[in-house]
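Posting for a labmate who doesn't have an account.
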Amino acid sequence: MAAITKDKIIDVADELFSKDGVREVSIDDICRKLCISKKTFYQFYSQKEDLVGDVVTKHVDLHRRQFEKMSEGKGSAEVLMAVFDNICRKREKGSGSSKRLAQEIRKYYPDTFLQHTAERNRTIHDFLADCLRKGIEDGLVRKDVDVDGTLLLIRLMHIGMVDYFEGEVPVMGKKLPVKSVTSSFEDIVVNSILSRKGMEEYSRLREEKLNKAKN
């Protein structure tokens, strides 16, 4: 049997938490899945909450790697398009087990959840801030854009959009489909921050993507 590592414990805990729920999964369950004793488990973690924190950190690191991959070798307009495509895919698929995991951590481990939220928001902010500043240098983003203020407003709009789909805000009239709302969100953001050159590039990239999807 391979030696037990901290990463292995985190991966198994993440799998069980996502499947059965954070509260329902005990240290005994994790040890059974790993075929280890609780004594071995306690060599790595003194309590379950510390393990929950590392599972959260794993997801934050995953977000960071996704953002890095998304931006590698791409200009600001292309990165923004990838971000909105990612948002749309997530809303259409639904959040599933990851949403349940976040909800349970928020309920049963509020301090860990707040730390996770802060780290995740910082990761997203830093990624987008770098994207916008690079875009200003490249002439794709308006020079007069207030990066921090703009990102705060984008975040608030995104939170409102998520709350709308999750039923957290009253619906006036017929509920709009995901594609309609996410497309409007995209239009507002890109038209607010991109320069004329940036809009031309964004439109070109979007048209290329649509043509590729048709073929």
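Reply:
Got it, the structure tokens are right above this. The mean pLDDT is 87.
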